[in-house]
């Protein structure tokens, strides 16, 4: 359709896209589909696949990555890259392991420490990127290195002691039904929904889509970015915290694997690296997918040597499908 | 100059406190001066026109008023109080709101969200309430006669016209003291919608700064107007007392005179160089035109009538929907700029900075880009030959050689344009397709560009030129095609080729109304 | 029919086992007539060491009678802890009888291992250890590699000189333990100066680069304390172009041993000790695990120590054949790459193995599983963070076993 | 770039081109950056003399250069991609693959080098081209495309070697790092290589078009440049240079591991960015990236000789990178000029 066509019948009512278009346009759909397929295969190839314990294990294993990916998504939405995730996860992991106390209160204290540390690093990143116009990818690389240095100062070998409350209760099932991991994930998601429904949330998408227009529309772009990086840091902190509970130890280089996995999860989740499109839910599901994929590859007996190939192919496939659907759903838009 | 100021101050001398009073605003970016000295004022309830060619400084004034750009010198007062907004929000708070030409809407947000930016309607728990936002948006939309747009629609799926309406409505709905409208009707086929709104708010005493290329609109709405030229306010005139020609003369200034070079008025028929038949695509509905060898054909039209897509189809940028393009007699299919270039088309885009030059590269590198292959063997560029080629071309477009070694971003718009045209000529194009080649360049450069185009066709080339400046077209081209609503509204040549005639055609009615 | 044959084979298998083991007749009667489902879990760090250890296990599992008795599956998880934990969990749900593994983290896998134990899955770790008490760890780590080699260096230097320390991976517990062990000795001698300390990541390539850098800054170095990848140290010294070579201690790469055996390098001053991590620990762990699994041995201790290899330069002897016969302990460079870890078999612990076992995981023709000596199991001392969670390391953890201090500070 | 309309583009340093005087100032900004980096490296070495008498010795510099040569080679490809506004995360796996193949094919008789090296370069280039195709034609974000490519290649290498790379060292390759006059041959080679790299970027039409495409993709398309071919070729170059680095590594350490390339991924990006190359593409020269590589190597050498905890060393390492970033910011000069001249709004 072109300007004149629409101008001529300009009083034809304009309603929101049909539901199927919106569904297709939303990257989350693809990841849900992939997840469903994997689950089916998994259930078919492993007898106790859907048993409570197995599911809990999967959730526990994927939660730290899911949290980290959630944080990374916020930065990607602003068209940035945050490599500091690896450093922050390691840092908070050892912080919690060394300074976390016993019992629920101790765990709470540990969480507080982790969140604070993450927020601090995030604030540094955010300030320098938003107000000094430093290249996000390069800056956060430096931050990551410094963080891992600080980590080694705190703990130069795996250790620290993690309370039984964290080790067992935090990774158990509430009332033997709901995995704690699931609860945490849902809480984070709800928190995101809430944030999404603030001026910052709207501004975040505005900034990512078109910074110039956002400024013209009065969005405080710099502050939006700063907050995005801070919240990202907080998420990394939580990831480090949950990782501590999962591994019941502080490991100085525990975060390293997350550096690239996080971006894999985000990509799987259908968040666009061009900014302004996507969301936290997709990334968290993306993280779950990566974990489940390992399980499926095991249960289907794929020679372990080749697991990497499958992971890579799935990543590419997901993005390609997302790109394709995005085109379909946005076809016929007027590009002014 | 002095008298220009005198008149403006005289005009602002008596009467009620001005809504806006601008005195001696100047602003420059590095080497490029955007605005030299601009002064004018707006009275309560007045719709004040800001007239001038592209690049005369209008958009800079808009940015200053909306707090995006802080002027280097000069003073602004709003309702008699000093007015120096640090950012868009400050401007808005002070009671100035703007509908921008490059619309400030976010495609990935809903209409409601866009309307509410940067502060959405809050429901319980202080969270954004989609329902409330959409409700408010809906009432707003219906109040301004856009009830047919559902507030939940994503802006990216709106037509350009709808977007423009939303942009305007958002500015108006903030009930500002001063409303700034930058080319508000560019995409509106029927501006009466806007005019009604303006009547309403001016009745309430709001001041409006109105920027438009459409003189007929300006005359209908505005009592006074200020003419800008090359970043200076030439004069603030009462529009009733001056004819279009007079205004154009002020806008174009000396350029009109000293480049009033002889035009090949001889109307012999020439063999076709390139042309299109029943071409449609983008906003072009159905256009047929032909350019002869050694001929300069002009294209005129109000903004958004399809001329842009016509040129971009010839450049291989906009996909062709129907009809055919002929070049040198052969029907061609231009699916990419590369193909267009191979076919002999030399395209100068309208957006110099984003689509034309490579700001990061040196001027000479910019110019030789398309012919690097020819400048050496085995893909290795022969420095000497490159220098020779550049110097020769620089002479042709009259570009001082001291600029050649600088990054092109450091050059003034005029010199950038010279380099760009130089590049296009270098590429060995046989047919020039120039979209507003003199946009925002100074008078001297204009003269140069005219000459370059003329001897290009004199050497057997052909050129299709679009310009927003009728005066320019009139003295440059052999004949001029006027586009309206994506079709050819008419053609003028020889004695027929006059501003009133073009204005009339462009406004969509056969007979002149001035 | 099928059942019958399998029964027959098992009977035969057990018969042989019984014969070889010469153990009580009841034990075989009790053992269930089935193939043991055993998983080998490696966390791929990518150096040859990983493959060689797994090859030994594969070879043993294919050596009669285990070939009839064992269904071995190898699983490689990435270098992150979650991946390996997830792998353990998958193995348990896949009905594993036992898991033999090289754990990537000494503490991070405890949960998964604990779950496995609760499901009565036998978990053995080789070379690297875990602090989860229900697992059996078989390792040389506690055998005093670092203090002994360090002391040897000190003796060699008569208590004074500039020393490099080539460490493993930053933030790793074994690295820390080796470092502490070495420093426990060096600190005693004020005249010993640690002029450079770098991380060779336990692979020849990084070690060579880091050593080359250090050598450039300190050509006046008098000795180098090395860990795995030490052949890189020698390579770096040779590449640096200095005439004079210095004593080097390291682990068991073939390149290193050949260098020590090389006469003119010795003349140029090269000397050293080849000690540390033996590939064979995996073979030993596997045999031990099988004996416990088949009920032929009750293993009481959790942490089992593998005897520390100790090959001084003058004891290096290049083998002519494919086994360690008449005291040879290195292979010609035509047979194995420099980075090959030589300490692949032990005449007492794993006589079944040969070079091809280590290189290709193939059993030695004609070999059958020999039982381990009855009293072979040696308990390892507690080391917090290495093989136990909340425990005290013995005061004499770093005691000297192979050498004694000949010089006094 | 989206900022341009608001800030009116960046006259930045370009202005100093004609106003400022003095040879140094008249040099191109990127060259200045590179020189500055070399200066920092030399200064570091000089300063390190306090650590020991042999610091700053010629031998040390040679050693540093030899070791940094691998990073230089990887950084070259990485920079080409970054100039394009992309990023290549597959260099690590690509380098490993190169090393593994070299170990298997080139090892042994020197004659193998003749066919082996071209073959391996061709393979890695082809694999790089695949990333390029994914990025330019299928429109997959470079970050994801190359990340996935890296993961896949690692899997392939793992499967191909079944865990242990097998083969023999190559005397011919090792000769490059000749024992006695260590570095000297390499030294010349490296200078030549750096020169060649800069030449490719500055003086060939491919290089020129690359910059154009990097600075302004839209304009490049409008100007009719072969955008897709350029992109694919660039990723192919990146693949090949990573492969070459792997081959060289075999020459240096007479054997390979599957972790060969891992330690080069982030440094390759760091070297490029520190070298004054903008991550959004279009500006920077190889001289800078090479200087960045040397700086990083020098830094780690000196840091590892500091008698302090590894933690502190890492912190220092990161801090220096950070400082370099701040000092070499694109618009730093502009900002200073502004803050001096007037209280104008900052971009």
TrEMBL record, chain A:
Pfam families in the record: BPD_transp_2
Membrane topology of this protein: Multi-pass membrane protein
Tell me the domain of life: Bacteria
The UniProt entry, under InterPro entries, shows: ABC_transp_permease
Where does this protein reside within or beyond the cell?
Cell membrane
What UniProt keywords are attached to this protein's entry? Answer: Cell membrane, Membrane, Transmembrane, Transmembrane helix
* UniProt key word Ribosomal protein: no
The membrane-spanning stretches of this chain are 23-45, 65-98, 110-130, 136-155, 176-195, 226-246, 258-285, 305-326
Please give an example of a GO cellular component term from this record: plasma membrane
Keyword DNA damage included in the entry's annotation: no
GO MF, one term, reads: transmembrane transporter activity
Protein name in UniProt: Permease component of ribose/xylose/arabinose/galactoside ABC-type transporter
Q: Which organism is it from?
A: Paraburkholderia dioscoreae
Automatic annotation (TrEMBL), chain B:
- Care to name a GO molecular-function term for this sequence? ATP hydrolysis activity
Pfam family, any one: ABC_tran
Write the record's keywords in alphabetical order, separated by commas: ATP-binding, Cell inner membrane, Cell membrane, Membrane, Nucleotide-binding, Repeat, Sugar transport, Translocase, Transport
| Residues in ABC transporter domain copies | 20-255, 269-510
Is Cell inner membrane among the key words of this record?
Answer: yes
Q: Which PROSITE patterns match?
A: ABC_TRANSPORTER_1, ABC_TRANSPORTER_2
InterPro entries membership: AAA+_ATPase, ABC_carbohydrate_import_ATPase, ABC_transporter-like_ATP-bd, ABC_transporter-like_CS, P-loop_NTPase
Q: Which SMART domains match?
A: AAA (SM00382)
CDD domains (alphabetical): ABC_Carb_Monos_I, ABC_Carb_Monos_II
Domain of life (superkingdom): Bacteria
Spell out the protein name for this chain: ABC-type sugar transport system, ATPase component
UniProtKB/TrEMBL annotation, chain C:
Write down the Pfam families for this protein, in alphabetical order: Peripla_BP_4
> What's in the GO CC field?
cell envelope
Keyword Transport on entry: yes
Signal sequence segment:
1-29
For this UniProt record, the keywords arranged alphabetically read as follows: Signal, Sugar transport, Transport
* InterPro entries, per database record: Peripla_BP_I, SBP_2_dom
- Where located? Cell envelope
Location of the Periplasmic binding protein domain:
38-296
CDD domains associated with the record:
PBP1_ABC_sugar_binding-like
Can the keyword Signal be found in this entry's annotation? yes
Q: Which GO terms describe its molecular function?
A: carbohydrate binding
- Primary location class: other
Q: Which family does it belong to?
A: Belongs to the bacterial solute-binding protein 2 family.
Q: What is this protein called?
A: ABC-type sugar transport system, periplasmic component
What is this organism's lineage? Bacteria, Pseudomonadati, Pseudomonadota, Betaproteobacteria, Burkholderiales
TrEMBL record, chain D:
In terms of superkingdom, the source organism counts as: Bacteria
A Pfam family that the UniProt record links to this protein: BPD_transp_2
Indicate whether Protein biosynthesis appears among the record's keywords: no
Q: Where is the signal peptide?
A: none
What name does UniProt use for this protein?
Answer: Permease component of ribose/xylose/arabinose/galactoside ABC-type transporter
Q: Could you tell me the keywords of this UniProt record? A: Cell membrane, Membrane, Transmembrane, Transmembrane helix
Taxonomic classification: Bacteria, Pseudomonadati, Pseudomonadota, Betaproteobacteria, Burkholderiales
Source organism? Paraburkholderia dioscoreae
Gene Ontology CC terms, in alphabetical order: plasma membrane
The membrane topology noted for this protein in its Swiss-Prot or TrEMBL record is: Multi-pass membrane protein
């Amino acid at each position: 359709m072109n300007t004149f066509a629409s101008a001529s019948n300009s009083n034809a009512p304009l309603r929101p896209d049909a539901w199927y278009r919106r569904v297709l346009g939303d990257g989350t759909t693809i990841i849900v589909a992939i997840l469903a397929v994997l689950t089916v295969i998994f259930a078919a190839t492993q007898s106790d696949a859907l048993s409570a314990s197995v599911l809990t294990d999967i959730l526990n294993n994927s939660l730290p990555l899911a949290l980290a990916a959630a944080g990374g998504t916020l930065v990607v939405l602003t068209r940035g890259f945050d490599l500091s995730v690896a450093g922050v996860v390691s840092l908070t992991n050892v912080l919690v392991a060394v300074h976390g106390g016993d019992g629920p209160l101790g765990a709470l204290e540990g969480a507080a420490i982790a969140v604070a540390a993450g927020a601090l690093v995030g604030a540094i990143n955010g300030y320098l990127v938003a107000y000094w116009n430093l290249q996000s990818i390069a800056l956060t690389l430096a931050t990551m290195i410094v963080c891992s240095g600080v980590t080694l100062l705190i703990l130069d070998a795996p250790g620290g002691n993690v309370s039984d409350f964290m080790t067992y209760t935090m990774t158990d099932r509430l009332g033997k039904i709901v995995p704690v991991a699931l609860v945490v994930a849902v809480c984070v998601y709800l928190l995101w929904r809430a944030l999404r429904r603030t001026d910052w949330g709207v501004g975040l998408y505005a900034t990512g889509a078109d910074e110039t227009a956002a400024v013209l529309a009065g969005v405080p772009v710099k502050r939006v970015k700063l907050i995005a990086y801070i919240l990202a840091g907080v998420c990394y902190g939580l990831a480090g915290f949950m990782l501590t509970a999962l591994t019941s130890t502080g490991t100085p280089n525990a975060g390293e694997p997350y550096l690239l996995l996080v971006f894999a999860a985000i990509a799987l989740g259908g968040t666009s690296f061009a900014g302004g499109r996507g969301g936290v839910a997709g990334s968290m599901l993306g993280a779950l997918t990566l974990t489940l994929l390992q399980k499926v590859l095991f249960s289907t007996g794929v020679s372990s040597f080749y697991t990497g190939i499958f992971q890579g192919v799935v990543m590419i496939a997901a993005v390609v499908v997302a790109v394709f659907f995005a085109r379909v759903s946005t076809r016929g838009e007027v590009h002014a | 100059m002095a008298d220009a100021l005198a008149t403006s101050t005289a005009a602002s001398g008596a009467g009620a406190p001005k809504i806006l009073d601008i005195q001696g605003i100047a602003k420059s970016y590095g080497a490029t001066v955007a605005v030299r000295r601009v002064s004018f004022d707006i009275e309560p309830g007045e719709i004040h026109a800001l007239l001038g060619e592209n690049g005369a400084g209008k958009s800079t004034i808009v940015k200053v008023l909306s707090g995006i750009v802080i002027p280097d010198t000069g003073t602004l007062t709003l309702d008699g109080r000093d007015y120096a907004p640090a950012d868009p929000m400050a401007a808005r708070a002070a009671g100035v709101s703007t509908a921008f030409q490059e619309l400030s809407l976010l495609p990935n947000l809903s209409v409601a969200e866009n309307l509410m930016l940067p502060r959405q309607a809050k429901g319980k728990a202080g969270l954004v309430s989609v329902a409330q936002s959409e409700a408010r948006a809906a009432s707003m939309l219906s109040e301004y006669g856009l009830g047919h747009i559902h507030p939940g629609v994503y802006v990216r799926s709106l037509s350009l016209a709808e977007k423009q309406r939303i942009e305007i409505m958002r500015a108006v709905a903030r009930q500002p003291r001063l409303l700034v409208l930058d080319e508000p009707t560019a995409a509106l086929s029927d501006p009466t919608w806007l005019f009604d709104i303006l009547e309403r708010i001016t009745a309430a005493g709001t001041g409006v700064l109105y920027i438009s290329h459409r003189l007929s609109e300006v005359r209908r709405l505005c009592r006074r107007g200020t003419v800008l030229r090359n970043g200076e306010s030439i004069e603030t005139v009462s529009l009733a007392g001056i004819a279009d020609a007079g205004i154009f003369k002020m806008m174009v200034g000396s350029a009109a005179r000293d480049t009033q070079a002889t035009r090949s008025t001889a109307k012999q028929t020439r063999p076709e160089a390139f042309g299109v038949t029943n071409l449609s695509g983008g906003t072009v509905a159905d256009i047929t035109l032909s350019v002869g060898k050694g001929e300069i054909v002009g294209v005129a039209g109000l903004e958004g009538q399809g001329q842009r897509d016509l040129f971009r189809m010839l450049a291989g940028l906009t996909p062709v929907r129907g009809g055919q393009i002929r070049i040198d007699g052969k029907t061609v299919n231009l699916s990419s700029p590369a193909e267009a270039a191979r076919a002999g088309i030399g395209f100068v885009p309208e957006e110099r900075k984003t689509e034309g030059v490579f700001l990061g590269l040196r001027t000479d590198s910019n110019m030789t880009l398309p012919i690097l292959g020819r400048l050496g063997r085995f893909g290795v560029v022969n420095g000497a030959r490159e220098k020779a080629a550049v110097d020769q071309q620089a002479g042709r477009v009259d570009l001082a050689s001291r600029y050649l070694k600088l990054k092109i971003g450091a050059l003034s718009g005029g010199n950038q344009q010279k380099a760009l045209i130089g590049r296009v000529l270098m590429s060995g194009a046989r047919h020039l397709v120039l979209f507003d080649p003199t946009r925002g360049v100074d008078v001297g450069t204009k003269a140069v560009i005219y000459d370059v185009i003329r001897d290009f066709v004199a050497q057997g080339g052909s050129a299709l030129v679009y310009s927003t400046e009728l005066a320019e077209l009139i003295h440059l081209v052999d004949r001029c095609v006027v586009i309206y609503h994506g079709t050819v509204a008419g053609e003028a040549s020889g004695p027929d080729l006059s501003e009133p005639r073009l204005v009339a055609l462009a406004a969509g009615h056969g007979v002149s109304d001035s | 029919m099928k059942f019958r044959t399998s029964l027959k084979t098992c009977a035969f298998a057990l018969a042989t086992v019984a014969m070889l083991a010469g153990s009580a007749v009841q034990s075989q009667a009790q053992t269930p007539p089935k193939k043991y489902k055993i998983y080998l879990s490696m966390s791929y760090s990518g150096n040859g060491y990983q493959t060689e250890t797994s090859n030994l296990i594969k070879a043993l599992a294919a050596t009669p009678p285990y070939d009839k008795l064992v269904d071995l599956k190898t699983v490689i998880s990435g270098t992150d802890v979650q991946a390996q934990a997830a792998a353990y969990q998958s193995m348990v749900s896949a009905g594993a009888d036992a898991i033999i593994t090289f754990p990537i983290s000494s503490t991070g896998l405890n949960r998964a291992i604990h779950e496995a134990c609760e499901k009565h899955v036998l978990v053995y770790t080789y070379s690297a250890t875990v602090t989860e008490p229900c697992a059996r760890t078989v390792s040389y780590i506690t055998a005093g590699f670092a203090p002994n080699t360090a002391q040897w260096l000190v003796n060699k230097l008569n208590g004074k000189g500039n020393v490099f320390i080539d460490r493993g991976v930053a933030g790793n517990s074994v690295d820390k333990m080796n470092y502490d062990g070495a420093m426990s000795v060096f600190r005693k001698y004020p005249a010993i100066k640690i002029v450079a300390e770098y991380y060779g990541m336990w692979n020849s390539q990084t070690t060579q680069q880091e050593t080359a850098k250090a050598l450039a800054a300190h050509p006046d170095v008098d000795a180098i304390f090395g860990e795995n990848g030490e052949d890189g140290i020698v390579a770096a010294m040779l590449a640096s172009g200095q005439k004079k070579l210095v004593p080097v201690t390291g682990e068991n790469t073939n390149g290193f041993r050949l260098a020590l055996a090389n006469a003119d390098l010795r003349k140029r001053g090269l000397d050293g000790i080849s000690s540390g991590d033996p590939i064979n620990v995996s073979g030993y762990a596997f045999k031990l695990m099988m004996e416990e699994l088949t009920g032929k041995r009750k293993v009481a201790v959790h942490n089992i120590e593998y005897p520390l290899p100790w090959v001084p330069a003058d004891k290096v002897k290049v083998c002519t054949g494919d086994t360690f016969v008449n005291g040879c302990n290195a292979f010609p460079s035509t047979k194995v790459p420099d980075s090959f870890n030589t300490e692949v078999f032990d005449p007492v612990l794993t006589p079944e193995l040969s070079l091809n076992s280590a290189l290709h995981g193939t059993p030695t023709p004609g070999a059958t599983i020999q039982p381990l000596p009855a009293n072979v199991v040696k308990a390892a001392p507690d080391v917090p963070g290495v093989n136990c969670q909340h425990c005290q390391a013995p005061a004499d953890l770093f005691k000297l076993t192979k050498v004694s201090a000949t010089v006094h500070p | 770039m989206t900022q341009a309309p608001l800030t009116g583009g960046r006259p930045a340093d370009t202005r100093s081109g004609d106003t400022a005087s003095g040879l140094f100032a008249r040099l191109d900004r990127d060259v200045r950056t590179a020189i500055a980096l070399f200066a920092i490296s030399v200064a570091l070495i000089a300063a390190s003399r306090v650590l020991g008498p042999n610091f700053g010795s010629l031998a040390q510099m040679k050693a540093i250069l030899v070791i940094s040569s691998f990073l230089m080679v990887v950084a070259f490809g990485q920079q080409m991609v970054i100039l394009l506004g992309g990023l290549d995360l597959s260099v690590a796996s690509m380098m490993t693959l190169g090393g593994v193949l070299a170990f298997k094919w080139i090892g042994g008789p020197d004659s193998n080098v003749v066919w082996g090296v071209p073959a391996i370069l061709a393979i890695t280039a082809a694999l790089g081209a695949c990333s390029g195709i994914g990025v330019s034609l299928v429109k997959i974000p470079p970050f994801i495309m190359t990340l996935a490519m890296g993961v896949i290649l690692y899997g392939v290498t793992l499967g191909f070697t079944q865990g242990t790379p097998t083969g023999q060292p190559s005397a011919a390759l090792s000769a490059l790092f000749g024992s006695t006059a260590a570095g000297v041959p390499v030294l010349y080679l490296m200078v030549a290589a750096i020169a060649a790299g800069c030449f490719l970027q500055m003086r060939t039409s491919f290089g020129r078009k690359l910059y154009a495409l990097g600075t302004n993709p839209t304009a490049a398309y409008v100007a009719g440049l072969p955008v897709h071919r350029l992109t694919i070729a660039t990723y192919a170059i990146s693949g090949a240079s990573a492969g070459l680095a792997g081959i060289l590594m075999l020459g240096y350490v007479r054997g390979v591991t599957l972790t060969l390339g891992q330690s080069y991924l982030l440094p390759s990006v760091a070297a490029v960015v520190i070298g004054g190359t903008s991550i959004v593409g279009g500006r920077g020269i190889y001289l800078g990236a090479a200087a960045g590589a040397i700086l990083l190597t020098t830094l780690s050498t000196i840091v590892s000789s500091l008698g302090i905890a590894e933690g502190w060393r890492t912190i220092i390492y990161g801090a220096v990178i950070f400082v370099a970033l701040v000092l070499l910011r694109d618009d730093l000069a502009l900002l200073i000029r502004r803050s001096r001249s007037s209280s104008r709004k900052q971009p």
